[in-house]
Backbone:
């Protein structure tokens, strides 16, 4: 069973992290899902793979009526990101899925039809959740060719998909990064291998440095908050990625 | 309730694949009859008035070959539609399993209604699948009747060959081959008829 943690709340504007499933089989990578609520509408970020759908669904149901989800935001095309799409559409076939235009004809292999998808142009776009402005921020080639993160200016939260991800050892349940230097060791190998371009990485670092961020929320591992956000951006900026030696 | 499990649907898919292979075999044999019948028509022409009846029967066998191919095309179309339905079933089996797990974990949620909708849709697909199975059975019976006719034509050609005077030997050989091939088709159709996919209720 996954746990939910409210990481931000201001009236009916809320961010809920859906994390750590102890019953999940070890062969599936652990994922974080995030639910943004504004009033009676909800947006689910990187809803996860089909096999973990029951765990995500039941955890989310405790906080929010799943049939009131209006949209899904998929940072990119991977199965651990959105292979559960068809199952979410069972609850609300009118639900929309925001995804890079690059993947809009690939993702329907997981579910959905021509009506389901809202293509995000390369430069990003504004998404309104019941009047709450959210910004799809470009993160191309990190680690997918068409990749977006989602920034909530009011909550000062950046959902960063696979950027900032860490593959934590079993038993590590920390929601937030507690000791940056220890934690970042679990992120290093992942970033070196899964991030495709130093140039793209540099541009992303420059882009997000201009945003006011209290929390950087990745799809795997723990959430960076406060000074650790800039610490992470600086660390990432220095890291050489996209090269393997064999 | 979804009646099908993933393994049942998987087994159906395997049976469908085998049926399709058998159909392809019949289609290729039917094509062979067409070529043989054309050659037999030329042979009958060379034999002249003595092989008039043989010529007429050879032409009938050519028509039989074309009709059989049309009939096998119907079977192929039904098989393709069955593959489509089994694929949907396989996908739905997984979805239903995951929705059931969601209902177990969140019994008070809207998952119960979604599961009920999914199961109702599964029933519709199950009925569609059963209907395809029935159509396949009927098309097989049609093919059988056609092969009965082919058998009669081949046997009549054997009798006509006896009147072929100096060509009697050659005509007998050709009509014997016709008979053998029709028997080959009959045996293929018999094996299709016995397939668990066709006999299942």
Residues:
């Amino acid at each position: 069973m996954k746990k939910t943690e409210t990481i931000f709340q201001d009236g009916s504007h809320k961010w809920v992290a859906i994390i750590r499933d102890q019953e999940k089989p070890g062969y599936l990578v652990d994922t974080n899902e995030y639910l943004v609520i504004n009033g009676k509408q909800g947006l689910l970020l990187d809803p996860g793979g089909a096999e973990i759908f029951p765990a995500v669904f039941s955890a989310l149901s405790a906080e929010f009526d799943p049939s009131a989800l209006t949209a899904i935001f998929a940072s990119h095309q991977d199965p651990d990101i959105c292979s559960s799409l068809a199952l979410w559409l069972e609850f609300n076939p009118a639900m929309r899925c925001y995804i890079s235009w690059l993947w809009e004809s690939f993702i329907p292999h997981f579910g959905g039809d021509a009506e389901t998808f809202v293509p995000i142009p390369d430069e990003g776009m504004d998404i309104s959740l019941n009047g709450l402005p959210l910004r799809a921020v470009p993160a191309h080639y990190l680690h997918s060719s068409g990749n977006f993160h989602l920034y909530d200016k009011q909550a000062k939260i950046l959902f960063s998909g696979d950027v900032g991800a860490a593959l934590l050892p079993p038993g590590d349940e920390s929601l937030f990064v507690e000791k940056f230097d220890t934690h970042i060791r679990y992120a290093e190998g992942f970033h070196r291998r899964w991030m495709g371009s130093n140039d793209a990485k540099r541009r992303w670092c420059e882009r997000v440095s201009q945003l006011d961020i209290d929390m950087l929320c990745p799809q795997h591992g723990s959430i960076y908050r406060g000074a650790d956000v800039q610490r992470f951006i600086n660390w990432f900026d220095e890291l050489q990625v996209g090269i393997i030696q064999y | 309730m979804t009646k099908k499990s993933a393994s049942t649907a998987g087994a159906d898919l395997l049976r469908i694949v085998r049926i399709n292979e058998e159909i392809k075999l019949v289609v290729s044999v039917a094509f062979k009859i067409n070529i043989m019948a054309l050659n037999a028509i030329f042979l009958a022409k060379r034999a002249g008035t003595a092989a008039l009846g043989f010529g007429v029967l050879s032409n009938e066998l050519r028509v039989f070959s074309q009709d059989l191919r049309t009939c096998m095309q119907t079977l192929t179309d039904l098989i393709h539609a069955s593959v489509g339905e089994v694929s949907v079933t396989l996908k739905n089996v997984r979805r239903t399993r995951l929705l059931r797990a969601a209902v177990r974990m969140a019994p008070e949620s809207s998952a119960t209604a979604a599961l009920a909708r999914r199961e109702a849709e599964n029933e519709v697909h199950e009925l569609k699948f059963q209907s395809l199975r029935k159509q396949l059975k009927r098309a097989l019976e049609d093919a059988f009747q056609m092969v009965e006719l082919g058998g009669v034509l081949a046997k009549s050609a054997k009798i006509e060959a006896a009147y072929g005077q100096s060509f009697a030997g050659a005509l007998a050989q050709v009509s014997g081959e016709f008979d053998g091939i029709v028997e080959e088709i009959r045996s293929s159709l018999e094996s299709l008829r016995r397939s668990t996919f066709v006999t299942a209720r």
